[in-house]
From TrEMBL:
Pfam families: Aminotran_3 (PF00202)
Metabolic or biological pathway, per its Swiss-Prot or TrEMBL entry: Porphyrin-containing compound metabolism; chlorophyll biosynthesis; Porphyrin-containing compound metabolism; protoporphyrin-IX biosynthesis; 5-aminolevulinate from L-glutamyl-tRNA(Glu): step 2/2
Protein name as it appears in the record: glutamate-1-semialdehyde 2,1-aminomutase
Top-level EC class: isomerase
InterPro entries to which the protein is assigned, alphabetical: 4pyrrol_synth_GluAld_NH2Trfase, Aminotrans_3, Aminotrans_3_PPA_site, PyrdxlP-dep_Trfase, PyrdxlP-dep_Trfase_major, PyrdxlP-dep_Trfase_small
Organism: Ceratopteris richardii (Triangle waterfern)
Length: 492
């Protein structure tokens, strides 16, 4: 230990932070030294400590304190300015308690808050950061695109380029429409399934989240599940009366709904791996079953791949499972951190969308050159050899390690991963649907979350959200996380 304290910060440009000290306790300093070149050299200047000499002195004194004073000040002010202090509910840390961390900047798999604390980040801005935050090549391409303007409101070549990439990647997509968010993609998709089939009813699953459009706010996941909210006020009954719900992985439930509503169901919409009520995997029979039922009934099957697209495989969950839906929604990763969503499918369906067809949907900023550039650059990186094997390997190690040290400390835990997506619950499991997920001890999760935060690991501030790894996470990051978790599991 002592020798690490002496050698670590001295040769590193990034270890000079409070968290560097915390890491030292976990034997993490060596990793920090090994990869110090990948961090911006400007980082120490923003930290409360300005001189490397001082840092060394502090390191020897083994300062432990986790200070979030600035975050608290900013968030307190934010609560008077924006509802709950945030622009998206789960960010407010309500279900894990304590104040949220106010971010200053991100790079690679790291995030830094405004108090100078450094975190290994497993949220990755809720999925988009799959190649690492603020990637140098993506940033350079964005700077070039910026010189030509931020928005055209007219066709641009970059739209063709990203559309071609998406169509080539995703098995179900022959034609695509870009929008600005996952919510918007799901809204467009909903109108389209109704326009194409001439039917109104849809089936969705308890705990699945498809953005915040009225019709989807029935037994929804994500923030709705996190905050334990009933279906939202402000949603007219008429908007949800055509939304039928079933339990995830319950094929019989779906069959029953089809039997009762024969010829009336426009589409079955689902997350092909659930990430919005924690991480829940479909059974083979379930996915194959709903593919068959929808086909037989003339309903459309929609995979909402806003989260899983380009994450489980380059072609998304549909490539991973070998099951092709009729329509697909995308978001998150295809914008590479800028606001992009998309919906796409067979040409005969997509030709319904205006101006090719009568179904109206539009967007002032849709397909804007900056967002297209970030998407193109991100997908190009994901095309490289071995990408998904790498994600699978490190994420597998992470989840196996977390479950092992957690169970050793006497906790009931279950969890899993596919490629760069993972999750765990404080319950023995198995977790096959939202009902099972709710058995998790969320108070324990809250304590775990806080403990990890204090050790420099940023997990999603909710039991009901999946975790994400990216190409910037290294085995050392994983090992650091597991050893931090070991201590936290023992303390809760
Ligand atoms: C995140 C998400 C959405 C909503 O996307 P936004 O960009 O937040 O509007 C929709 N569906 C799924 C599966 C998601 O994970």
């Amino acid at each position: 230990m002592a020798s690490q304290v002496a050698t670590g910060p001295a040769s590193s440009s990034m270890a000079s932070s409070w968290t560097g000290l915390r890491r030292t306790e976990s034997g993490y300093t060596q990793r920090a030294v090994a990869s110090s070149t990948s961090f911006p050299s400007s980082s120490p200047a923003r930290l409360p400590i300005t001189s490397r000499h001082e840092t060394r002195m502090l390191a020897v004194s083994v300062e432990k304190k986790f200070v979030t004073k600035k975050s608290e000040e900013v968030f307190t002010a934010a609560k008077e300015l924006m509802p709950g202090g945030v622009n998206s509910p789960v960010r407010a840390f309500k279900s894990v308690g304590g104040q949220p961390i106010v971010f200053d900047r991100v790079k690679g798999c790291r995030a830094w808050d405004i108090d100078g604390n450094e975190y290994v980040d497993y949220v990755g801005t809720w999925g988009p950061a799959i190649i690492g935050h603020a990637d140098d090549e993506v940033n350079a391409a964005l700077v070039e695109a910026l010189k030509k303007g931020t928005s055209f409101g007219a066709p641009c070549v970059l739209e063709n380029e990203l559309a071609e990439m998406v169509i080539e990647a995703v098995p179900s997509i022959e034609m695509v429409r870009f929008v600005n968010s996952g919510t918007e993609a799901c809204m467009g998709m909903l109108r389209l399934v109704r326009a194409f089939t001439g039917r109104e009813k849809i089936i969705k699953f308890e705990g699945c989240y498809h953005g915040h459009a009225d019709s989807f706010l029935v037994k929804a996941g994500s923030g709705v599940a996190t905050l334990g909210l009933p279906d939202s006020p402000g949603v007219p009954k008429a908007a949800t009366s055509a939304t039928l719900t079933a339990s995830y992985n319950d094929l019989d439930g779906v069959k029953e709904l089809f039997a009762k509503n024969k010829g009336e169901i426009a589409a079955v919409v689902l997350e092909p791996v659930v990430g919005n009520s924690g991480f829940i995997v479909p059974t083979k029979e379930f996915l194959e079953g709903i593919r068959e039922i929808t086909k037989a009934d003339g309903a459309l099957l929609v995979f909402d791949e806003v989260m899983t697209g380009f994450r489980l495989a380059y072609g998304g969950a549909q490539e991973y499972f070998g099951i092709t839906p009729d329509l697909t929604t995308l978001g998150k990763i295809i914008g590479g951190g800028l606001p992009v969503g998309a919906y796409g499918g067979r040409k005969e369906i997509m030709q319904m969308v205006a101006p090719a067809g009568p179904m109206y949907q539009a967007g002032t900023l849709s397909g804007n050159p900056l967002a297209m550039t970030a998407g193109i650059m991100t997908l190009k990186r994901l095309q490289q050899q071995g990408t998904y094997e790498y994600l699978d390997n490190i994420t597998g190690k992470l989840i196996a390690g977390l479950l092992e040290v957690g169970r050793e400390a006497g906790h009931k835990l279950c969890g899993g991963h596919i490629r760069g997506m993972f999750g765990f619950f404080f319950t023995e499991g198995p977790v096959n649907n939202f009902g099972d997920a709710k058995k998790s001890d969320t108070e324990k999760f809250a304590k775990f979350h806080r403990g990890m935060l204090e050790k420099g690991v940023y997990f999603a501030p909710s039991q009901y959200e999946a975790g994400f790894t990216g190409l910037a996470h290294t085995e050392d990051d994983i090992n650091f996380t597991i050893s931090a978790a070991k201590e936290v599991f023992q303390s809760i």
